[in-house]
Amino acid sequence: MGGRESRSDHASGRLFFSGRTAHRLSLAAFIGLHAGRHDSPPPFTPRMIVLDTVQALALGAVICLLLLGSAAMIYFGTAARTTARRRAGEMAHAAALLRSAPALPMLVRADGRVEMSARLADWLGFSEVPRFLAELVGEGVGLSAQDGALLTADVGAAQRGGRSFTRALRPQGSGRSLVLKGARAPLELGANGSVVVWAFDGTESEAEIARLGGEAARLGGAFEALTGLIEAAPLPMWYREADLRLTMVNSAYVDAVEGRDAADVVSRGLELVEGSGRGGPLAGAAAARDKGRPHEQILPATIDGARRSLRIYDVPLPTGGIAGFAIDIEDLEQSRAGAKRFAEAQRAMLDRLSAAVAQFGPDRGLVFCNQPFRRMFAMRSEWLADRPEFDRVLERMREAKRLPEVRDFPGWRTERHEWFRQTEGAIEEHWHLSGGIHLRVVAQALPDGGLLLIFEDRTEQVQLASARDTLLRVRSATFDNLFEALGVFAADGRLQLWNNRFRSLWDVEEEFLAAHPRVDALAAKIANKLMTPNRAELMPELVRSATQDRQQRGGRVAFADGRHFEFAGVPLPDGNALFTMLDITDSRRAEQALRDRADALEAADKVKTAFVANMSYELRTPLTSISGFAEMLHGGYAGALPDQAKGYVEAILESTERLGLLVDDVLDLTVAADGAARFEDVDLGQVVRAAADTLRSAANRRRLDFAVEVARSVGRISGDRRRLKEAVEHLLRHAIEHTPEGGRVLLHADGDAARARIIVSDDGPGMEAEAVAHAFDRFAEPAIKATGGRALGLGLPLAKQFVETHGGTVSLVSELGAGTLATVELPRRQG
Known about the structure:
Elements: E1 7-8, E2 15-16, H1 19-37, H2 53-99, E3 103-108, E4 114-116, H3 118-123, H4 145-161, E5 165-169, E6 178-184, E7 195-201, H5 203-232, E8 237-240, E9 246-249, H6 251-257, H7 262-268, H8 281-291, E10 295-303, E11 306-316, E12 322-328, H9 330-352, E13 356-360, E14 366-369, H10 371-377, H11 381-384, H12 390-399, H13 409-416, E15 427-433, E16 437-445, E17 451-457, H14 459-481, E18 485-489, E19 495-498, H15 500-506, H16 510-514, H17 519-526, H18 538-547, E20 553-558, E21 564-571, E22 577-583, H19 585-635, H20 643-673, E23 680-683, H21 684-701, E24 705-710, E25 716-719, H22 721-737, E26 744-751, E27 755-762, H23 769-773, H24 795-805, E28 809-815, E29 819-827
Parallel strand pairs: 24-26
Antiparallel strand pairs: 1-2, 3-4, 3-7, 5-6, 6-7, 8-9, 8-12, 10-11, 11-12, 13-14, 13-17, 15-16, 16-17, 18-19, 18-22, 20-21, 21-22, 23-25, 26-27, 27-29, 28-29
Helix pairs in contact: 1-2, 19-20, 20-24, 21-22, 22-24
């Protein structure tokens, strides 16, 4: 066939081959025809018998030639027949191949005649084979008028210009889709102008094409959606070629590297992660490409000026490229670091707890235990470092005698394995160990399959609970036997507790109290026991004040039998109220007796004060006469006196002066006790100087070095000018009288913004400690004297009284042989 197509026409039984094949078949047929003609010899006539020898020879030669020709013809005929048989087999093989071909041929002659197989006619919807191209167009069968015109135009173009064509048609009356491919026919198939049209059944192909088109549309939509998702993804994503060059990035990548757009980032090759080498951005992509599996690594990057940690994923694709994306795990890393620090802080805190804590992992190995756990169960750190299993830990606890004594220890231990699988809440047990040790055990299963155990030593609590029970019994016994009547009322006003004294005092039945009556019902029942029945209303008021207002109130009540009781409502911490009643009959009588005695003493004191005042005034009159006559004698009004008499007169004058001062002091004490003081704005410096001038003559008589220092800071105060001057004079008089001749007395005054200070010091013999302790006592024993033998007198008590009237303080410091120092501090303003 020489590569050219052959076809069989089942309708006519003729075969069409190429020109070379047809030529060979014609030659074989010609030889076979002539060989058939010479198979039977021609008939002989009588004339041939009488032929002469020459003719016979000639005839014999001819016959020989004919025989030779016949033999040759028989030989060639046999060869041609063999060749024909072989060619027929080839034709049958070609026809079988043609029948199984996916395309059927149609030959269109230059005059419009067509040659096709019945199979192709069936494809076109015809029951008979059309003879002309125009017959391919029919009503309900064949081609439509439009498709026929298009096919006719395609065939004409192929005949004229040799241009091939392809046309898809759907014949009428047939469910097939045909694809016609035409081209000018070779010369071996007929005269010039023929066109060979191959018809392909594209029904299945079209369905497959439609399916593939739909699949392509679906995949295209999915690709568009995936592209949109990648573009809208908040995490950077990219794609690299096999040579690791960037070829595609999304918007998040562009924003992360601060590029203009994706094209700019790809053209510049901007990498998300800085660096190069083994830890660079291309190392993970190269590892994913070389190993053929995804690669993951954590690298730092700078995004928006902040240092971030990124988890980089590089995934190899079947196309040879590498897809990658990055997840910002900075917050996760910070959270992990925070969780790690929290866990470390928690474990450090657990080490400081008094309770023992142990944690087991999902594999039941010990992962953590605090210091109290090691101490409580006597476990060494070296042994715990090997992460012993739960069973081994229980064995070690048993060896340390820190487990309850049980008969079946293996079974008991197996039951504790359920702690790891419990799902609801925590399990709590109480272990009673030898030696009186009580442990509270709390087992809490962890979400990861582990177990948390907490061991709390409750030995002390149990002992305290036992002691508390004993204390409660003692308290109950004490409560019932108290002399004081007690009742506890609840917040709703009902009686909850009472002692025997409470019941016997009100003389009520035990059944009534056992019913827990309200306070108003109880008050109504006991009202007839009181001297004034309406006083019973105080009990509900006190209970209400203690329970609702949380205020403590009290009072007194008199019973009809003459007894007196002091009662009170006390709020309790639990919201209840305690009602107490104490029998104060005896104390009431004693109080009345003391009150009567106090009144009598007060009256006597008033009489004494009046007597002292009157006596002082009465003493001043003869004292003034004595002083006046003594001065007249000393002045020579009765004539000149001898020196000895003058000495006696001077002694009389000194004694009368001293007696006058004592009388004045007594009067001052009497007036000061009445609190008579007139406050005004006083220049304290002037007061101090005036007091110093008053005592200067007395200091001169004793030849003392009298120094006065008044600073400007002493300022002004609010006070009684006369009382202040007298207070300074008393202090100066005490210093002058107790300083021997030739000594020194210092008066110093200063102050600050809050107070003024006055200091009087001397270098006299000083005072004993007992004398200093009672120096300001108005009623000190006469035996309390200064070191010089002089009595302390009333000067210092008066000075203290005047200073305290002004809200000030006075102190005295003295040392034997070193002198005495008196300090007065006065506030600027009185409260």
